[in-house]
Design a protein that fits this description.
Number of domains: 1
Number of helices: 13
Largest sheet: none
Shape: globular
Length: 339
C-alpha cells in the first residue's frame, strides 16, 4: 500500500467505526418513537412506518437517487481519467469520499425527521440478494489468482469475467447504496453492524484505482465481514439457531476458497480447516442443548446452503454476462481493437 492511501484508509475506517458506534445514542435521542407493526414472518421488514405518506417516501427516494447517480458519475470520471492503480488519490477519489460522508449525514437526518427507508416500498430479499451478487462477482474476479475450489481455478467464460471486472464497481456501488438507504438508522445490533459494513464498502468504492482497492488483506476482510454480519442479523432477528447456518455457510466459503488468496503455507490451511470442521461438528451436535444430539446432527446439511447458492450463482452469473458480452456494443467495448 502507498503511505498516503494507507493513512486515508486508517482514518476512514476509524471514522466509520465511531459513526457506527454512535448510532445507539443517535437512535435514543433523535429518532422518533415509531409504533411498529407486528412481525409477520421472514419476508416482513419490521422497521418501517405503519402509515407512510408521499412525503416520507420522497424523503428517502430522492436522496437515494441523488446519491446513486452522483456516485455512478464520479466512478465514470475516475475510470475515464485512466488513473494508475498506485498509492495516490485523485480528485475523484476525494470526491467519492466526500459524497459518501455527506450521504451518511443526510441519511441520519432523514431518519430523524421521517424514519422510513426504502424498505417501505421494496421487498426485503432485494437488499439481501444485492449483497449476495456482489460476493458472487468477487468470487468470479478472484478465481484468476486464488481459484474457486481449494486453490484450483475453474474455467469461466473469459468475456464473462472481463465484463464482471468492467462493471463490478458500478454494481457494487448500487448494492451498497441501495442497501444503505433500505434501512432506517436505528440501534438494533444487526443494523449497527450492517451500517458499519456499508461504510467500509463506501470506503472501498472511494479508493478505486489505488493499491488498497485490490490489497488481498483489505478485500478479504470485506468479504468475510459478511459472515459476522449475516450471523449477527440472524441471531438478533430470527430468535432461533438459524444463525449457525450463516456462520458455518460463509465459513465454508472461506475455507474452500478465500483462504487460498493469502498465500499461506499448507500446514496453516490444514490447521484452519481442522478448526472449521471441529466448530461445525460442535455447533451441529452440542449446540444449543449442551449435550450430544443426533437430531441436531441431522441438520448439518444446512452448512451447504450458502456455499452451494453462491458457487452455483458464480457459474450462472458468469454465463449470463458472457451472453451479454456477445451484444455488439458490449463486444466492441470489451475488444476495442478487434477487427
Amino acid at each position: 500500500m502507498g503511505k498516503p492511501v494507507r493513512g486515508v484508509l486508517k482514518w476512514s475506517v476509524l471514522v466509520a467505526l465511531v459513526t457506527a458506534a454512535l448510532i445507539p445514542l443517535f437512535d435514543a435521542t433523535l429518532v422518533p418513537d415509531v409504533g411498529l407493526l407486528p412481525d409477520q414472518g421472514a419476508s416482513w421488514y419490521l422497521w418501517k412506518l405503519p402509515d407512510p405518506t408521499w412525503i416520507t417516501r420522497l424523503s428517502v427516494w430522492m436522496p437515494y437517487l441523488i446519491h446513486q447517480l452522483v456516485v455512478w458519475y464520479l466512478i465514470y470520471r475516475l475510470n475515464a481519467s485512466r488513473k494508475r492503480s498506485d498509492g495516490s488519490l485523485s480528485k475523484w477519489n476525494w470526491w467519492l469520499l466526500g459524497v459518501s460522508a455527506v450521504a451518511v449525514v443526510a441519511h441520519f437526518a432523514q431518519t430523524a425527521l421521517f424514519y422510513d427507508g426504502l424498505a417501505q416500498d421494496v421487498p426485503i430479499w432485494s437488499s439481501q440478494y444485492s449483497v449476495i451478487f456482489m460476493l458472487v462477482m468477487i468470487l468470479i474476479m478472484k478465481n484468476r489468482w486464488r481459484g474457486l475450489f481449494f486453490g484450483r481455478k475453474v474455467p469461466l467464460p473469459k468475456d464473462g469475467v472481463r465484463l464482471t471486472s468492467m462493471s463490478h464497481t458500478y454494481y457494487i456501488a448500487w448494492a451498497a447504496i441501495y442497501t444503505f438507504w433500505f434501512h432506517p438508522v436505528v440501534s438494533e445490533w444487526a443494523h449497527v453492524v450492517g451500517f458499519f459494513y456499508m461504510f467500509l464498502l463506501f470506503i472501498q468504492l472511494s479508493l478505486a484505482r489505488t493499491r488498497i482497492h485490490t490489497n488481498k488483506y483489505w478485500t478479504l476482510a470485506l468479504e468475510i465481514l459478511v459472515m459476522f454480519h449475516g450471523a449477527s442479523v440472524a441471531f438478533y432477528t430470527q430468535q432461533s439457531i438459524i444463525w449457525t447456518m450463516f456462520l458455518t455457510g460463509f465459513m465454508t466459503i472461506f475455507i474452500v476458497t478465500q483462504i487460498y488468496g493469502l498465500g499461506l503455507p499448507k500446514w496453516s490451511i490444514r490447521l484452519a480447516s481442522a478448526a472449521y470442521l471441529l466448530l461445525c461438528l460442535g455447533l451441529y451436535t452440542f449446540y444449543p442443548s449442551g449435550t450430544f444430539s443426533t437430531e441436531r446432527l441431522g441438520q448439518i446439511y444446512q452448512v451447504s446452503f450458502i456455499p452451494v447458492t453462491e458457487y452455483g450463482l458464480v457459474f450462472v452469473t458468469a454465463a449470463a454476462l458472457w451472453a451479454v458480452s456477445l451484444l455488439p456494443p458490449v463486444k466492441n467495448r470489451l475488444h476495442p481493437n478487434a477487427d
